[in-house]
């Protein structure tokens, strides 16, 4: 993918691994029901760096700990062992809590259960109002967030009349109004239909490429992971693989062992290769495949 | 499904839509008090005129108001007939043991009118004010109670969320009912006891789902830096404009007139 240098937040987008680290996770271990009978380790010593401006996908089978990991990024959960630093701030230190939550916004799976108000623009304002900003500033940020998510024309609608994709965009707008550096999305597309999923991915890619927002996407759709800058694979609370989508999806056997599949285009390319066709490596998305076939 | 649209906000840009919601709440209370004070037919005419004029000013079709009244026609009819039949006095006409008195007819008419006016007044508020503004107004009006320990912000937030989830829960109930019906559950058949029992498979999943939603919503609110009313601002700060003062003045003048006519 070409790096289109749009006038975003940073001139040099942290596309490469040498970019500035935004979230640093070191030796993160987390248990559910600690000390209880059903104590269950969800994460074992996970290390991960999220670079400023990148689009990172977290994938893994059910129960791999990817959602648990995502919830550590804005201090909804704090580690039992190890540390999570958000722009140098330790999530375990209470004094940084609200600063971290403002900087790292979170979007959840169920679009209905994160909308607070019965009016679209009022819901977008909720987070900004919580920051105690003056009303004109809230207004400006709400307008900006509505434009960025393409919801301006729905500002006076009732949220329950929106489609699933629009509801998730509304949830993103509500976070954007807080002007975060980083968006963490916890399986945001799993309750959406294909067109809603496309809407959501387009919005995320636009925010990442044009506005320099760092995106961490937890997903179980490999097609979504394929367009990320970097992919990390979790299994049983451990990081098993990380790298560019091309690197990660080259490890077909390993992925299959943890119960994941390749993106459809990559799978087709792989099978063609096995049949003796000279298909180049690195075909991950339908777009890549079309580009190759119609060259 | 239950019709919940009665009395619900109709977006618009009329004078009444533009008034500060606090003005509207106060005026509605003042007018409702006036409706209870009035006794003579002149006063009824005055208040009815005032309410009708306000209704015209909303720019909302009379049909919407009328539909709201229709929904309580039974209550209106029962109160009217009870009043007409049970008031002792000069018999106007009788049918066996049923005697309609002149006094009863007048009293019934007045009660009927009083109820209709009250409903219309309430509609004037709810049809022109979005739920969000309504809760903001209540929070602001109740703010002084904060000092004696009433959690006004929390109450307003609860109301906002409750209003937000009404359509979602209705939708959910509808879905569960369909799912249960597809597995042979019969709602609305059999005796009263059977019907109540039949609702159980509807309510248990509905409540379980609502609790789950509440938990997820709480996490989502926390993730958006919600920490109670302290430090929080509002996008729409409420400000009283000249037309608010005018409206308050007119409404209180009418209340004063009714009080004066009644007690002098």
Textual characterization of the structure:
The complex is a heterodimer of chains A (295) and B (264). Chain A is of the alpha/beta class. Helices cover 36% and strands 21% of the residues of chain A. Chain A has helices spanning 66-72, 97-103, 120-130, 135-148, 164-176, 194-211, 222-226, 245-249, 252-257, 264-274, 286-293, and strands at 21-32, 40-51, 55-59, 81-86, 89-90, 104-107, 182-186, 214-218, 230-235, 238-243. In chain A, the strands form 2 sheets. A 6-stranded mixed β-sheet of chain A has the order 6-7-8-3-9-10, with helices on both faces. The longest helix of chain A has 18 residues, at 194-211. The two termini of chain A are 16 Å apart. Mean pLDDT of chain A is 88; it is low at 1-17. Chain B is mainly alpha-helical. Chain B has a domain at 1-129 and 238-264. Chain B is 70% helix and 3% strand. Chain B contains 10 helices and 2 strands. Chain B has helices at 15-18, 21-37, 41-58, 62-70, 73-86, 102-128, 131-142, 152-182, 192-223, 242-263; strands at 91-95, 98-101. Chain B has a two-stranded antiparallel ribbon. In chain B, α3 (41-58) packs parallel to α6 (102-128). Chain B starts with 14 loop residues before the first helix and ends with a helix. The relative contact order of chain B is 0.14. The interface between A and B is large, with 41 and 31 residues.
Entry keywords:
A: 295 residues, six-stranded mixed β-sheet, 10 strands, disordered N terminus, B: 264 residues, mainly alpha
